[in-house]
């Protein structure tokens, strides 16, 4: 349910970024999504600005279109900026008038690369969801942060990061059945207090689904919080960082593995274009074993030895993916997010997967090809 108040406040997002009626927005996102419809089209109406609508996002046409229409701002979501960075560099990459980019989902490494490639564009990364009753804005110059919990925003929306047990996929409670707050530097489940000023309007005609998003009696009897389903970390200075979706983070050897973090580190390899990390179930084993589906850069080969060395340098052993699956293309949702479900279900069985599969082989300090014969004995090599 999008109330008028919600719709109107969403239309104000670009004004908060300093946009004016002189700006020209280049819009490539699907219009049924709140981002394009309310922040984008609604934002242009609110501003009296020009909106250039593209039927479908195209990474190769993006900057040419921006130049052609004199675009000064755009909306991004999910992996969109990564796809722009993945395009071959061109001399004129910085020749454009774009000055503002607003969206959510840009990863720190992509953020830095994007600014280096395309020039000093102000990136406004925000955190929020269509139905959620809270939003954070990166109003500081902190790369990677989704926002900051200043006294002011804490006063406006009361939120908490709650201690969460990844293996049981449930909140940790004290002996009175109340929730505990996560410590500084420790990922916690983001929940936001539902009040008259920050209401949760729920889903149309589906009370059950609406109720599922709410947590009651969190700290005291009768309080109600909206469950965002996201794990975030707060640092000493109050900056908030997105860690992972609940359900994506998995446990292996008693340790938590945040898939976003691992994917980012794999993505640092020069031969890898993008990585999608997830945990798969394995017979007779507790927790889930780490796996990465990767797309290689054009004309690049997979180098198991270098990847192994890189991961040993950057990740503790429990977080290093045991299996790597090479994909021709990553499947994404209509909002440019990686799909994981089908990958999780297919696991690492070479009988099912026709693409090359590699596994982490400690004795040879490398990732080596997973053949059908080796697969039959995988449980021993783990
Ligand atoms: C873009 O700006 C240039 C220079 O200001 C102008 O000549 C041109 O007509 C503009 N293009 C469009 C599509 O408005
Ligand atoms: C509003 C604002 O200051 N946004 C900033 C968010 O972080 C990036 C990266 O440092 C800055 O470029 C933006 O200016």
Automatic annotation (TrEMBL):
Keywords, A to Z, come to: Fatty acid metabolism, Ligase, Lipid metabolism, Lipid transport, Signal, Transport
Q: Which family does it belong to?
A: Belongs to the ATP-dependent AMP-binding enzyme family.
Q: Where is the AMP-dependent synthetase/ligase domain?
A: 2-147
Q: In terms of domain of life, where is this protein from?
A: Eukaryota
Keyword Transcription found: no
Q: Which GO terms describe its biological process?
A: long-chain fatty acid import into cell
Read off the InterPro entries from this record: AMP-bd_C (IPR025110), AMP-bd_C_sf (IPR045851), AMP-dep_synth/lig_dom (IPR000873), ANL_N_sf (IPR042099)
- Catalytic activity as recorded in UniProt: tetracosanoate + ATP + CoA = tetracosanoyl-CoA + AMP + diphosphate; a very long-chain fatty acid + ATP + CoA = a very long-chain fatty acyl-CoA + AMP + diphosphate
Please provide, in alphabetical order, the Gene Ontology terms of the cellular component aspect for this entry: endoplasmic reticulum membrane; plasma membrane
Gene3D superfamilies recorded for this chain?
Answer: 3.30.300.30, N-terminal domain of ligase-like
Q: What class of enzyme is it?
A: ligase
Q: Which residues form the AMP-binding enzyme C-terminal domain?
A: 261-337
Q: What is this protein called?
A: long-chain-fatty-acid--CoA ligase
Residues of the signal peptide: 1-21
What EC number(s) does this enzyme carry? 6.2.1.3
Q: Does the keyword Lipid metabolism apply?
A: yes
UniProt GO molecular function:
long-chain fatty acid transmembrane transporter activity; long-chain fatty acid-CoA ligase activity
């Amino acid at each position: 349910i999008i109330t008028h108040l919600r719709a109107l406040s969403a239309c104000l997002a670009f004004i908060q970024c300093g946009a004016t009626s002189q700006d020209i927005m280049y819009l490539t996102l699907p219009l049924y999504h709140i981002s394009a419809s309310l922040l984008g089209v609604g934002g242009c109406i609110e501003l009296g600005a020009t909106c250039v609508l593209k039927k479908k996002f195209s990474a190769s046409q993006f900057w040419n279109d921006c130049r052609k229409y004199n675009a000064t701002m755009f909306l991004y979501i999910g992996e969109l900026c990564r796809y722009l960075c993945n395009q071959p560099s061109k001399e004129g990459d910085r020749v454009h008038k774009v000055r503002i980019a607003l969206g959510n989902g840009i990863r720190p490494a992509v953020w830095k690369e994007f600014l280096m490639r395309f020039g000093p564009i102000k990136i406004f990364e925000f955190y929020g969801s269509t139905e959620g009753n809270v939003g954070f804005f990166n109003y500081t110059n902190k790369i990677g942060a989704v926002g900051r919990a200043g006294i002011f925003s804490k006063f406006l929306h009361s939120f908490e990061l709650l201690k969460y047990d990844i293996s049981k996929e449930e909140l940790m409670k004290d002996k009175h059945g109340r929730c505990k707050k996560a410590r500084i530097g420790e990922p916690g489940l983001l929940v936001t207090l539902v009040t008259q000023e920050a209401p949760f309007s729920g889903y149309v005609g589906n009370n059950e689904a609406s109720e599922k998003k709410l947590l009651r009696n969190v700290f005291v009897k009768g309080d109600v919080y909206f469950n965002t389903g996201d794990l975030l970390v707060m640092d000493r200075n109050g900056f908030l960082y997105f860690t992972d979706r609940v359900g994506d983070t998995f446990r292996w050897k008693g340790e938590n593995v945040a898939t976003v973090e691992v994917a980012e580190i794999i993505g640092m390899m020069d031969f890898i274009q993008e990585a999608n990390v997830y945990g798969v179930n394995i017979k007779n084993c507790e927790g889930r074993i780490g796996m990465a589906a990767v797309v290689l850069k054009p004309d690049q080969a997979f180098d198991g030895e270098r990847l192994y060395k890189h991961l040993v340098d950057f990740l503790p052993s429990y977080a290093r993916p045991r299996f790597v699956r090479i994909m021709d293309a990553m499947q994404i949702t209509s909002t440019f997010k990686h799909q994981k479900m089908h990958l999780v279900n297919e696991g690492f069985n070479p009988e099912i997967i026709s693409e090359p599969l590699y596994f982490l082989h400690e004795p040879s300090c490398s990732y080596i090809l997973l053949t059908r014969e080796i697969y039959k004995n995988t449980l021993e090599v783990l």
